[in-house]
Amino acid sequence: MAIEQGPPTADNPWPVALLGAKLRDWIDRLGTAWVEGEITQWNVAGGNVYGKLKDVEVDATVSFSIWSSVRSRVPADLKQGDRVVAAVKPNYWVKGGSLTMQVVEMKHVGLGDLLERLERLRRTLAAEGLFDPSRKKRLPFLPHRIGLITGKDSDAEKDVKRNAQLRWPQVEFRTVHTAVQGDRTVGEVTAAIL
């Protein structure tokens, strides 16, 4: 029986395998891309590495695999928690219905890389005039409100508020509760600041 490959309808639906094959073919056309993230899982099995790479700014994660034939191009000291850039080739596995990034190359994001990117950002912001003295506001002698980003029901929150009240009874806080440990911390704290 030939599978009809026209647009699917309720009367002529695609089999799951056809949808999977179309997804795989489309994803295969994407090619290799460089991505940056934090390793949140790192498991070695049979000479291959399987893990997860998380975006450092938002809550987004992808699975990756490093085949044993590629491990020589990957630093031996990589581990969970490391920030990396990786050349990945997206692969869609039809039988299991899963998307994985096959790593071609991976390396640490070093301090020099971070400093270079910060300097580029500083130049961009300066070109937009964001550092112009006319845009700056004078800070008040005493703040009207203090921003506090902390874990919910934390001892740190209680200590900060208690000590501030002792020194300045009129102090007002705007408290934002976030994760302070784990994978969600960076994204939640960043969002709370913004």
UniProtKB/TrEMBL annotation:
<dbReference type="GO" id="GO:0003676">
    <property type="term" value="F:nucleic acid binding"/>
</dbReference>
<feature type="domain" description="OB-fold nucleic acid binding">
    <location>
        <begin position="20"/>
        <end position="106"/>
    </location>
</feature>
<dbReference type="InterPro" id="IPR003753">
    <property type="entry name" value="Exonuc_VII_L"/>
</dbReference>
<protein>
    <submittedName>
        <fullName>Exodeoxyribonuclease VII large subunit</fullName>
    </submittedName>
</protein>
<dbReference type="GO" id="GO:0006308">
    <property type="term" value="P:DNA catabolic process"/>
</dbReference>
<keyword id="KW-0963">Cytoplasm</keyword>
<dbReference type="Pfam" id="PF13742">
    <property type="entry name" value="tRNA_anti_2"/>
</dbReference>
<keyword id="KW-0540">Nuclease</keyword>
<dbReference type="Pfam" id="PF02601">
    <property type="entry name" value="Exonuc_VII_L"/>
</dbReference>
<feature type="domain" description="Exonuclease VII large subunit C-terminal">
    <location>
        <begin position="130"/>
        <end position="193"/>
    </location>
</feature>
<keyword id="KW-0269">Exonuclease</keyword>
<dbReference type="GO" id="GO:0008855">
    <property type="term" value="F:exodeoxyribonuclease VII activity"/>
</dbReference>
<dbReference type="InterPro" id="IPR020579">
    <property type="entry name" value="Exonuc_VII_lsu_C"/>
</dbReference>
<keyword id="KW-0378">Hydrolase</keyword>
<dbReference type="InterPro" id="IPR025824">
    <property type="entry name" value="OB-fold_nuc-bd_dom"/>
</dbReference>
<dbReference type="GO" id="GO:0009318">
    <property type="term" value="C:exodeoxyribonuclease VII complex"/>
</dbReference>
